[in-house]
Automatic annotation (TrEMBL):
Topological type in the membrane: Single-pass type I membrane protein
Organism the protein comes from: Acer negundo
Leucine-rich repeat-containing N-terminal plant-type domain: residues covered: 717-757
Keyword Oxidoreductase: no
Keyword Membrane: yes
Protein name: Leucine-rich repeat-containing N-terminal plant-type domain-containing protein
InterPro entries: Leu-rich_rpt, Leu-rich_rpt_typical-subtyp, LRR_dom_sf, LRR_N_plant-typ, RLP23-like
Keywords: Cell membrane, Glycoprotein, Leucine-rich repeat, Membrane, Receptor, Repeat, Signal, Transmembrane, Transmembrane helix
Protein family: Belongs to the RLP family.
Length: 947
């Protein structure tokens, strides 16, 4: 056995680093290595295959002399290990007989060595990787892609997902592949920072059957020649910034099985009226601009379709009844469109597991006969439609159903008892915001797997004993609010200890439930009840202080039991009770505090020291006397301060009208205060309500930011769009103070963060610092707010999503603030079409996460003749002095504020900047200007601030 020593050397020399499971087997001298797991041999006993994938090997392999001595090796698989950002060893080139090399997701980083290009027998090469924030990427710079593949003429499969190939433009990477890889069948370059366009030379790769270019900034139309790949089975181009009209001929490629064009907002197209492709299995068009089109009946001809995802495409019309012919359908997502009419029958799709028709305008009832055959359904989401009638028990009792979401419809009957409830696997049941009536079925409380139960905003009646809920041992979220229920919590029995969210607003509670044993409760809402006792001091220690959201408003509470120590609450709402005495100092972690409409008589002098994070504070409609404490000036994050309708006297601290830069609403009327209005107020101030001045109706602030100060009653379509947007967003229910208070039962023009005009149309939206994450791409409701002219999404957590191009739909925008919101990548060209913008803020806290390359700065601002404020701090602009200077001066005649810190700008500062006569603030610090300060920036030009 000539290669046993090499194998043993590999195992033994790497034992300090290799923690794979069978290393000890490698050392068993009595065993034949042709029988070892992961080893393949030819008839002569030569090792020709080595599979060490997913073996938790750590460190690197550069010292593995035994490995590099396996001269007959034809296949090497080291995928899914933990090589801790080491480089791919150049000595792999010693393995000259390799045909299959798989190093995917193994933790390699740095430059791919040029020696790989010498492995001329390779048929399959997989170097795919996944980079994480702070980790070193795997890249192809020197050598570049052309050099890597120049000798790999036998290659049939190339996988470089996640490898940084940004040095190659469209014509370069396409020509590199087409000139060197004539036999290529599989091309996978997902998330490689490639740029477009897709060059016509790619058409020379006649054997291509799989093309995966997802998550690259191609910014190009899909070329017609792709319909000429006669063997094409999979075409994936999601999140590529595709433009133009998608060629319908590609739908008709007879071999095509997978087509994924999702998340290309500017890609237009339509599903052909005639579809005869008998191979297509997966069709994904979500979040494209296949808008205004109906879905043709011919989709029912695609007999092998198993997955259809058409969410957020603005399809209208009815859902074709021909879809009932799709017997192999497993996954169907038609959410966030404008489909109307009734839900068609899917009873023939017996393999259907996932059904999402939410956020449409579907109407009519749900047939009770369609569901019994769908025994494999796991997920059903029909939220936010116009469905009426009853909810069939056959749907509720499906044997595999785990999530059922029917909220925000118009179901208007009694919910019948569920058959076989005790054997159900249902984990989420959302029936909220309907018109359901009668008692809550007792069988709901027999759903042993239930984790989330949402029954709020209906017409349920009767009495619910909290003890009856004890059987739901897995329940984490319960919302029975806003029904006609009476919840009996008189028992001293402790409530479910694993509950995290408990909402019992407007449930006729007379006592606070026994929640002393709670371990995980962080959101508690007992508002609008009849609780008349003191607030027990044990409530502040619930869940060992992890309670973050507490709403006890609109009760009959008399006081706070002493001693008390408030926990780390983010939201504390005690308004509309009968609380007396001194205002209790709020938790230092609180973001939202409402003590209004009580009988408090004094404010602690040091209250400001507790308001480090507070954004909203209302002490209105109490019996407060004395002066406004000077410590209020320490509340530097306040946006709303309401001290109205008290008996306060003295002078208003100057900081409240000029010092707190974030303060947008100040209400002091109905007091005995005195003072004068300062000449300059905070740039954030929207509304001042003072006791000696009823209203100051500012139309703009110091730099022209639009101010909204009047509103009418909310129009129903505007409310629907806002709720649709809310339901499409991912946010922290504890920290998202404004979003959590939006509900269908109140006028949307009164919602926090929403401003309306006199006609009840939404014209302002401020969702800054709402802990929204994941992105806004699917927020169809947001992009339909056609009257919106102020949008603030600053300081959120959009998890490296790109700025959505659909913002261009909001053609009336004059104020757009996306600063520090977590967006990354190229700023979309569509922003340049927002010609009414007065203020644009895309600044970041982290350098170069956003780029202005294609389009560049000149293209972005070319239509912004009204712009007065431009903030692009830490955006990678990488422009020379004459370029960025002339781009600004030629397009922005009214510019007053220019902030381009850390933008990779180079000098000199071009003289054309002198044409911007209105400039009052210039920030160009931390750029490589390497230039004298030009004389035209002299203070004689009235520049208030130059940096």
């Amino acid at each position: 056995m000539p290669e046993r020593p090499a194998i043993l050397v590999t195992a033994n020399e790497e034992q300090p680093h290799f923690q794979f499971f069978f290393v000890c087997t490698f050392g068993a001298v009595e065993s034949r290595h042709s029988t070892w797991s992961g080893v393949d041999c030819d008839v002569a006993g030569h090792v020709i295959g080595l599979n060490l994938s997913n073996e938790s090997i750590s460190s690197g392999i550069e010292n593995s002399n035994g490995l590099f001595g396996l001269q007959y090796l034809q296949s090497l698989n080291l995928a899914f290990n933990k090589f801790n950002s080491t480089q791919i060893p150049s000595r792999l080139a010693n393995l000259t007989n390799l045909k299959h090399l798989n190093l995917s997701y193994a933790g390699f980083a740095g430059q791919i060595p040029s020696e790989i290009s010498g492995m001329t027998r390779l048929v399959t090469l997989d170097l795919s990787t996944k980079s994480f924030i702070g980790s070193l990427p795997l890249k192809l710079e020197n050598p570049n892609l052309r050099v890597l593949v120049q000798n790999l003429s036998k290659l049939r499969e190339l996988y470089l997902d996640g490898v940084n190939i940004s040095s190659s433009h469209g014509n370069e990477w396409c020509q590199a592949l087409s000139s060197s890889l004539p036999n290529l069948q599989v091309l996978s370059l997902i998330d490689c920072i490639l740029s477009g366009p897709i060059h016509s030379s790619l058409a020379d790769l006649h054997s291509l059957s799989v093309i995966r270019l997802d998550q690259n900034n191609l910014s190009t139309p899909v070329p017609e020649f792709m319909s000429g790949f006669s063997n094409l089975t999979s075409l994936r181009l999601s999140s590529c910034g595709l433009t133009g009209t998608f060629p319908e001929k590609i739908f008709q490629v007879p071999t095509l099985e997978t087509l994924d064009l999702s998340n290309n907002k500017l890609l237009r197209g339509s599903v052909p009226r005639i579809l005869m492709n008998n191979s297509l299995q997966i069709l994904m068009l979500s979040d494209t601009n296949f808008s205004g089109n109906t879905l043709p009946d011919s989709i029912g001809n695609l007999k092998h379709l198993s997955r259809i995802e058409l969410a957020g495409c603005n399809f209208n019309g009815t859902i074709p009844t021909s879809m009932s012919n799709l017997t192999e359908l497993v996954n169907l997502d038609l959410s966030a469109n404008n489909f109307s009419g009734q839900i068609p029958s899917f009873h023939m799709s017996k393999n259907l597991t996932y059904l999402d028709l939410s956020f449409n305008v579907l109407s009519g009832g749900i047939s009770s006969t369609d569901w019994p055959q769908l025994v494999n359904l796991v997920y059903v989401d029909l939220r936010n439609n116009l469905l009426t009638g009853s909810i069939p028990p056959s749907l509720l009792s499906l044997p595999s159903l785990q999530q059922l979401q029917l909220g925000s419809n118009q179901f208007n009957s009694q919910v019948l008892e569920l058959p076989n409830a005790s054997s159900s696997v249902l984990g989420t049941l959302d029936l909220s915001d309907n018109r359901l009536e009668g008692p809550i079925p007792k069988s709901i409380f027999q759903l042993k797997k239930l984790k989330i139960l949402l029954l709020s905003s209906n017409k349920f009646n009767g009495t619910v004993q909290l003890d009856s809920i004890q059987r739901l041992a897995n329940l984490t979220t319960l919302d029975l609010s806003y029904n006609s229920l009476t919840v009996n919590a008189s028992s001293d029995s402790p409530f479910l200890s694993q509950i995290t969210t408990l909402k019992l607003a407007s449930c006729n509670l007379s006592v606070i439930p026994n929640l002393k044993n709670q371990l995980r409760l962080f959101h508690l809402d007992l508002s609008q009840n009849q609780i008349s006792e003191e607030v027990p001091n044990w409530i502040w220690n619930v869940s060992n202080g992890i309670l973050t959201h507490l709403n006890l408003s609109c009760n009959l509470l008399k006081g706070l039991q002493v001693p008390y120590s408030l926990p780390n609450l983010s939201v504390l709402d005690l308004h509309s009770n009968q609380l007396q005495g001194k205002i209790p100092p709020p938790p230092t972690t609180a973001v939202y505090v409402d003590y209004s409409r009580n009988f408090f008589t004094s404010i602690p002098p040091d209250i400001g020291s507790f308001l480090n994070f507070t954004v909203f504070l209302s002490l209105s409609n109490n019996n407060l006397g004395g002066v406004i404490p000077q410590s209020m000036c320490n509340a530097t994050n306040l946006r709303v301060l309401d001290l109205s309708n008290n008996s306060m006297s003295g002078t208003v601290p100057a900081c409240l009208t000029g010092g707190i830069q974030t303060l947008g609403v100040l209400n002091l009327r109905g007091n005995n205060l005195k003072g004068s209005i300062p000449a300059i107020i905070s740039s954030a101030m929207r509304i001042i309500l003072l006791s000696w001045l009823f209203f100051i109706p500012f139309s703009t602030n110091f730099f022209g930011i639009p101010i909204i100060h009047v509103s009418g009653q909310c129009q129903s379509d505007q409310q629907s769009l806002l709720l649709q947007m809310k339901n499409s967003l991912l946010f922290n229910s504890t920290l998202s103070v404004r979003l959590m208070r939006w509900n269908q039962s109140t006028d949307c023009c009164t919602w926090s963060g929403v401003d309306c005009d006199m006609a009840g149309r939404v014209i302002g939206l401020d969702l800054s610092e709402e802990s929204i994450y994941g992105g806004v791409d699917n927020s169809t409701g947001l992009f339909a707010l056609q009257h919106l002219w102020s949008l603030n999404l600053a300081s959120n957590l959009f998890d490296e999503a790109q700025i959505p191009s659909r913002l261009a739909n909001l053609t009336n925008l004059t104020y757009l603030n996306l600063s520090d919101a977590g967006f990354v990548g190229q700023i979309p060209i569509e922003i340049s079409s927002l010609t009414r913008l007065v203020t644009l803020d895309l600044s970041c806290s982290f350098t170069a996460r956003l780029q202005l390359e294609n389009p560049n700065l000149k293209v972005l601002v070319q239509n912004f003749s009204e712009l007065r404020e431009l903030y692009l701090d830490r955006v990678n602009i990488s422009a020379h002095g004459n370029e960025w200077g002339q781009a600004l001066s030629s397009s922005l005649p009214n510019l007053q504020v220019l902030s381009l810190s850390f933008c990779f700008l180079s000098g000199p500062i071009h003289s054309s900047l002198a044409d911007l006569h209105s400039l009052s603030v210039i920030r160009l610090d931390f750029n490589d200007l390497s230039s004298p300060v030009p004389e035209f920036l002299d203070y004689s030009h009235s520049h208030h601030h130059w940096r």
